[in-house]
Specification:
By secondary structure, the protein is mainly beta. It folds into two domains: 1-44, no CATH class; 49-371, Nucleoside-specific channel-forming protein, Tsx-like (Outer membrane phospholipase (ompla), Chain C, Beta Barrel), CATH 2.40.230.20. The chain contains four helices and 19 strands. It has helices spanning 2-22, 26-30, 146-149, 310-315, and strands spanning 49-62, 69-70, 76-77, 80-93, 96-107, 116-118, 121-122, 134-145, 160-174, 181-195, 199-213, 240-242, 246-256, 267-276, 298-309, 323-333, 350-351, 354-355, 361-371. The strands form four sheets. A twelve-stranded antiparallel barrel has the order 1-4-5-8-9-10-11-13-14-15-16-19.
């Protein structure tokens, strides 16, 4: 392995003087005041970096498409507060990196769990008070660096740090009436660039393929407005959708605010953005669902997060980033690919011609992260 070979080469150079002494013969060795004994060479660890963190955060005005309530003044409120419990793992090994993120999200009552389809109501119109929905979301991204795979540094030039193959997958489920069961895979390249102050920006153009579930697309619930000769919607027997393959672009960045005075160097900025192309309606061949289920380009982003290094501020540089507090802004347009434009009048996003504000998310979030 590339890193291991370099490490062993360095050890060999360090031991070269001992080999020279041995070639001098027994007479010269006898003149030495002490006997030299070489220490065993420690093996290089499999993971050069192994970082694990737990985060609690709060999203003040998150959304879930189609989930809304009516305010006393008649306006529609599609916002829901969410508590988020997250586990994050990042490691670096000889040929690349692995990133895993697991989220458990708990909504308030404006995003109800099954059997409610909306606040205070079930699918048959009965009144019901349901708890807020609980959602699990997990993802993994792995890279394989070209510099490491080909034992070269040809893919490092100027600000370009490396080019890598990238693969990954996502999985999600939620106990709402919709009963989503998202699974997707991604594959492509990652271009890693250096930024000032120990920063970086990674840009990854990817292939994207998604499978999911939508209870509202089952026969009997699918609704009307299908583009078929009869105008009838057949629906999907089990509600399982298979979307068309499409493109994706994922971007991540991080940078310490190293230009601040030394006594204020506790801050960093980071962010991410994911762009996912239209992926069709998800209906298998031979079935018909509403034309409004056709998807548009989705933007899922956290453009800016400001992090305060509490560990360094309280306990010193030795404990840097052991405990972080942060505040961020989230922007998620056309959530899950649903068309939120006024022209579309998508019935998930619009109620009686008015936008219910559930298909685009604009939310401040804040949290605390602990390394362990």
């Amino acid at each position: 392995m590339f890193y291991r070979t370099k490490a062993l080469a360095a050890v060999a150079l360090a031991l070269a003087p001992l080999a020279t002494l041995a070639s001098m013969g027994s007479a010269a060795a006898a003149d030495l005041p002490v006997k030299v004994k070489a220490k065993p060479v420690a093996d290089v660890p499999f993971f050069f970096v192994n970082d694990n963190r737990f985060t609690y955060s709060y999203q003040f005005t998150a959304t879930d498409p189609g989930a809304f309530s009516v305010k006393p003044n008649g306006s529609l409120d599609g916002h829901t507060a969410k508590q988020v419990y997250s586990f994050t793992h990042f490691d670096v090994w000889a040929y690349g990196t692995n990133f895993i993120n697991l989220d458990l999200l708990k909504s308030d009552h404006n995003d109800p769990a099954s059997p409610c389809t909306n606040v205070g109501a079930t699918i048959v119109g009965d009144s019901e008070t349901c708890a807020g929905a609980a959602e699990f979301y997990g993802l993994i991204r792995s890279t394989f660096g070209w510099n490491q795979l080909f034992s070269t540094n040809q893919f490092t030039m100027g600000p370009l740090h490396n080019i890598s193959f990238e693969v990954g997958a996502d999985g999600e489920t939620e106990n709402s009436f919709l009963a989503p069961n998202k699974k997707d895979i991604v594959a492509g390249l990652q271009f890693a660039f250096d930024l000032p102050y120990k920063g970086y920006i990674d840009i990854a153009p990817l292939y994207y393929q998604e499978w999911n579930h939508n209870a509202f697309l089952a026969p009997g619930l699918v609704g009307s407005g299908c583009l078929t000769p009869t105008g009838a919607c057949t629906g999907i027997a089990d509600g399982n959708t298979r979307f068309d393959a499409t493109w994706a672009l994922e971007i991540n960045y991080y940078m310490d605010l190293g230009f601040l005075p030394e006594n204020m160097q506790y801050f960093a900025i980071s962010g991410r953005a994911g762009f996912y192309g239209p992926k069709g309606g998800g209906a298998p061949i031979g079935t018909a669902i509403q034309a409004s289920n056709a998807t548009k380009t989705e933007i899922n982003s956290e453009p800016i997060r400001l992090t305060f290094d509490m560990g360094k501020a309280i306990w010193g540089a030795k404990y840097s980033h052991e405990v972080d507090t942060w505040v961020a802004y989230r922007y998620w347009e056309n959530k899950f690919g649903l068309d939120d434009s006024e022209k579309s009048q998508n019935p998930v996003c619009y109620t009686n011609g008015a936008n219910n504000h559930s298909c685009t998310e604009k939310s401040v979030s804040a949290g605390v992260t602990v390394k362990f």
